[in-house]
Design brief:
Layout lengths: L1 E3 H5 L10 H11 L2 E7 L7 E11 L7 E6 L4 E6 L9 E5 L4 E2 L8 E2 L3 E3 L2 E3 L2 E2 L2 H4 L28 H4 L5 E6 L14
Antiparallel strand pairs: 1-12, 2-12, 3-4, 3-6, 4-5, 6-11, 7-8, 9-10
Length: 188
């Protein structure tokens, strides 16, 4: 059985000092075996919501643009190839240290500040497949389409996991036949 720690907190007072792993360990020691503890927001570490402030052509590349992006505490320049990026749009921004898949393929790589064709890029404005979200790409199109988060009621700089309501821990509780406890067969 999988159970959301956020949902569990609606019914039980769980001290904030305990991490999801610690709660899983305590449950295993005292009540039932927790097979796995999955931090849903971990894959969005070092990712925030950014607001596109301005867009200008990249001086050394036809398909790239320089995008000034408000990430809350400051505005950074990001080199971007997304064809659908518009001024004022809220976008997912992976900052240095975030793990992304280039164009949604291969193993994740740790992002670093980089110079792309002579211009500094402090992070990456991300398409869904690059960060593990459903793709916004349309069939038959080769361009990267950036996720538009403008429908969310969040400010620039908000952590992406929080903005997407993915800041949660899921406990996977196993009710093995040895314990066979009916009280562990459902959330209630």
């Amino acid at each position: 059985m999988k159970i959301s720690l956020n949902w569990l907190r609606d019914f039980v007072d769980i001290p904030a000092k305990y991490s999801g792993k610690e709660i899983g360990d305590l449950l295993t020691l005292r009540t039932c075996e927790v097979e796995d503890v999955q931090d849903l927001g971990a894959e969005f570490a070092n990712m925030v919501v950014g607001r596109v402030v301005s867009i200008r052509p990249h001086p050394n590349a036809d398909k790239l643009r320089l995008v000034d992006t408000d990430i809350g505490e400051k505005t950074v320049q990001v080199v971007c190839g997304g064809a659908n990026v518009l001024e004022g749009m809220l976008v997912p921004v992976a900052l240095p240290g975030a793990k992304v898949k280039w164009h949604g393929e291969g193993e994740p790589v740790v992002l670093e500040e980089a110079k792309i064709r002579g211009e500094t890029s402090v992070g990456m404005i991300c398409a869904g497949e690059e960060i593990g979200l459903e793709s916004d790409n349309l069939p038959g199109q080769s361009e990267v389409h950036i996720h538009d988060l403008s429908g969310l009621n969040v400010k620039p700089g908000t952590g992406l996991a929080e903005a997407l309501s993915m800041k949660d821990v899921v406990l996977d509780i196993d009710n093995k036949s040895l314990t066979h406890r009916p009280d562990l067969w459902g959330h209630y």
